[in-house]
Each structure stands twice: as C-alpha cells, then as structure tokens.
Specification:
It is a single chain. The protein is an alpha+beta fold. Among the domains are: 141 residues, 3-Layer(aba) Sandwich (Beta-lactamase); 74 residues, no CATH class. It has a five-stranded antiparallel sheet with strand order 2-1-16-15-14, with helices on both faces. A five-stranded mixed sheet has the order 12-5-4-3-13. It has a three-stranded antiparallel sheet with strand order 7-6-11, with no helix packed on it. A hairpin with a 6-residue loop joins strand 6 and strand 7.
Length: 449
C-alpha cells in the first residue's frame, strides 16, 4: 500500500507542473541574482498556504511599499471614518484658536471657508486675539536616514503648517526685448531668489534649470541657475511653511472682513475652548496621495498624526511616537532585525523581510478596509503597468536608487486570492528593467496559481 501511494505521489510530482519552478527558472534566466538580491513571497490567503518563497526572511530596504504598512497601521489607529480636521475654537475671553490637524489636503480656499462659517455664525463677534494651536505633531523637518537627495527640493519639510501642498509656482520667462530672464512669482508667498539664469538660442540650446539653497540647506535664499530657451513654470517647496500658512490665513481672514487686535501667534488651546467652525478631508481622501501617488510628505505626516492619537495627544507627536505605535501594534510579526525608521520608506535605515511585509498586509486586509484604497492597474504609480490585471490587482510600488519593490494582492486566473511581495535590491539595472522583472513575476503568479 505504501509503495502504491509513493508511486502515485511520484507520478503527480512528475506530471503536474511545478509552478514555483517557473518563477525560479525565470529569476535564474534573468541573471538578476548575479549582482542583486531578489526576495519573493507569495501566499494563498484563503487556505493560508505559502505558494512561493525566496529569500523571504532576508532583511532588505522596502522603499515605498512601507507606506502600505505605516499608513495601514495609522488607518487602524485613526479609524476608517477619521477626518483630518482644521477647526476654529472660541474661548471665554473672545479669543479664537485655529487647531491644526495635519490635513495634507488643506487649501487656502478651505481656510476662507472656515472663516466664512464663523462669520455667518457670529456676524457681530468682537475677536480679541487669534492663535494657532500647532501641537498635533512636532516640526522635525526630515526623518533620520534621509539622504541629501531626499530633502529640499525633492521633499517638503514635515510640519503641522500645511496649506496648498506647501508648494509655490515660479514662472521662468524670457523677455521679448532682451536676453534677460524674468522670474515671476504670483503666489502671495515669495521665495527669495538669486537669478543666475541665462537666455539660450532656441535652435541650439537645451533647457536646463537647477535650483539650490544659497549658503546651505538652512538658508532661506534660493539660487536659480541654467540655460533657458522657453518659458517654464517650476514648482518648488516653500522654505518657510509657517510663514506661508500665515500669509494664506491672513488672506482668509481679510476675505471675510474679520478684524482682531494683535498679530497671530502660536499658542496651545485651553481645554475649555469650544468648536465653532471646521473644515476637513477624510482619511480616504488623504489615502489617494499616499497609496496611489506615493507622496512621502503625506505618508510622514499621517504617520505622526496617528502617533498623536496613540499617545492621546499628550504632546506634539514625534516620529519616535509613531514608530512605537507601529511596533506595538505589529509586535507579533516583528522578528530580530526588523526596523522601521520613517513613515514613507525613504530612509535607508528601514529593514524588513518579504515575509514580514506579507504578514502585516494580510492582517490589514483582514482587519481594515484598506484593500480598495490601494492602486489597481492604470492608477497612480501603476498607471502604465500590468494593465491585463485590471480589478484583479491592488498593490503599492517602491523605488529607490538601485532597488525596486512591489507588494499587494492579486486574484489569479484560477481564482486564488494571493498576497505577494517582491523586493529587488542592489541592482545595477535601469528602473524600467526592474519594473518589467516584477511585472513578469506577477504575471506568472496570475497564470500559474
């Protein structure tokens, strides 16, 4: 009897296709392993079976797939009905407090609406002072482990003062009468700019404009250099978010013809104050910036905002508070060497394994409604990828220098629900080659399982 069973099992092994071998064969043939580390983990979520694994416990940098984990943990803490609220409060001394809520989608129009609500409710109210309570999160501009290329102008400083994405537009314009290049700033917030731009012949020149802070990263002065052949709008992060916010706030107050006694300053709101007006964006609204468009600024801000709630708003939330929140909530999946250093995946200090990423994502899918918030084919960073998987795929991509990653959920051709994680690190190959490598593995998962 044992011999018959053994014969049947041997036959099945020989006759039935070994799908894991198809992925392994492709990885070998692609020569990625000669100079790169390839980590893959695929799991059947219905039957809890591991379908494929390779270097699944090796610690690697996740890049932006970390956003699924950190935003997902924030989503757990804040709740799916959470609103990022900017509110006006009134105290007994006729002071108003603007309570900042870490709303990454807040606009100047929202601020105008906020004071319009107040004006309609209290048309004859005599305001003494207006204060800003900015104690939701701290003002540490960049997480540890961010490199020089990761900070301004490639990323905005992390701050509770957010309005209009903390960006400003600058028009670079060739003068029609001379070789002069004009710099036009229509935003009420102005960057102090040193103009070192040159006009170049339109037939032979190449447009190349660079920008840097004069006298180093702490400077408030920007140098614009390069050759200009045509008019161009450049979008840059504001250097002083607090000043930018105050300018937009003053505009909103003036628009609603509201008068008060003194200059606006920051001050913690007393517990006795009560809400009189508010504007907000939902956590689902905010998720699009982070999970679809991979916005680092948004990911870091929301991570800290969740940390603030986790510590019951006892002090302005720090990155350490958010990381502690993450580690405590995901403690059962954390093994030796796992390290979360920021909320966006930019930090080179982040270390995760593919199996860890899979475990946390699976937990999130079971216990939150995060899955439909992830991008499918033709959305966000997946806009040009895996189009044949439309509606069968929900995933988050990641890219850093010499590495690429993708993680998420795919329903296969055979109707198997899978979670997959792919991380490629230390690769000399071009970004497009890395992404195509991932696409092929996901295609094999879809076809074979």
């Amino acid at each position: 009897m044992k011999r018959i069973i053994l014969t049947v099992l041997t036959y099945l092994v020989l006759v039935l296709p070994n799908y894991a071998d198809e992925i392994s064969k492709y990885i070998r043939q692609s020569d990625f392993e000669l100079k790169s580390t390839v980590s893959v983990f695929v799991k059947d979520t219905k039957n809890n079976n591991i379908l494929y694994k390779k270097n699944e416990q090796k610690l690697l940098n996740p890049a932006s797939i970390l956003k699924v984990l950190t935003f997902g943990t924030a989503y757990k803490v804040l709740g799916q009905n959470y609103k990022f609220e900017t509110a006006l409060y009134r105290d007994k001394s006729n002071n108003l407090y603007i309570k900042l809520g870490g709303d990454i989608l807040l606009t100047e129009a929202n601020l105008k609406e906020l004071f319009a609500q107040f004006k309609q409710k209290y048309p004859d109210f005599k305001i003494n002072n207006i204060y800003i309570d900015d104690t939701i999160i701290d003002k540490t501009p960049y997480p540890s482990g961010w490199m020089e290329d990761d900070i301004w102008p490639n990323s905005r400083a992390i701050t509770p003062y957010i309005v209009d994405n903390n960006y400003t537009d600058i028009l670079i314009k060739r003068s029609s009468l001379s070789k002069r290049i004009d710099i036009i700033q229509n935003d009420d917030y102005k960057l102090p700019i040193v103009n070192e731009l040159n006009a170049t012949d339109k037939d032979t020149g190449i447009q190349k404009i660079s920008f840097e802070r004069q006298y180093g990263e702490e400077s408030s002065i920007v140098n614009l250099k390069g050759d200009v052949i045509k008019d161009e709008i450049i979008t840059l992060p504001v250097l002083k978010p607090e000043i930018n916010f105050n300018i937009k706030l003053q505009n909103a107050i003036k628009k609603n013809d509201i008068k008060f006694n003194k200059q606006i300053i920051s001050k913690k709101m007393p517990d006795s104050a009560y809400k009189v007006a508010f504007v907000y964006h939902t956590i689902e609204d905010v998720s699009k910036k982070i999970l679809l468009n991979s916005d680092n600024f948004g990911a870091e801000t929301v991570f800290k905002v969740a940390g603030a709630k986790y510590i019951n708003y006892s002090h302005p939330a720090t990155l350490d508070d958010a990381v502690t929140m993450f580690n405590e909530i995901n403690a059962k999946y954390i093994t030796d060497g796992i390290k979360i250093a920021d909320g966006s995946g930019v930090s080179r200090y982040n270390l995760v394994s593919a199996e860890f990423v899979s475990n946390v994502i699976e937990d999130l899918f079971k216990n939150t409604n995060i899955k439909p918030l992830l991008a499918t084919s033709s959305e966000g960073t997946l806009s040009e990828r895996l189009l044949f998987l439309k509606d069968n795929l929900r995933a988050k991509t990641g890219t850093l220098s010499k590495m690429s990653s993708i993680a998420g959920f795919v329903t296969t051709e055979k109707n198997t629900d899978t979670i997959f994680v792919i991380i490629v690190q230390n690769s000399p190959k071009r970004k497009a080659v890395l992404k195509n490598f991932e696409n092929t593995i996901i295609g094999l998962i879809y076809k074979e399982y």
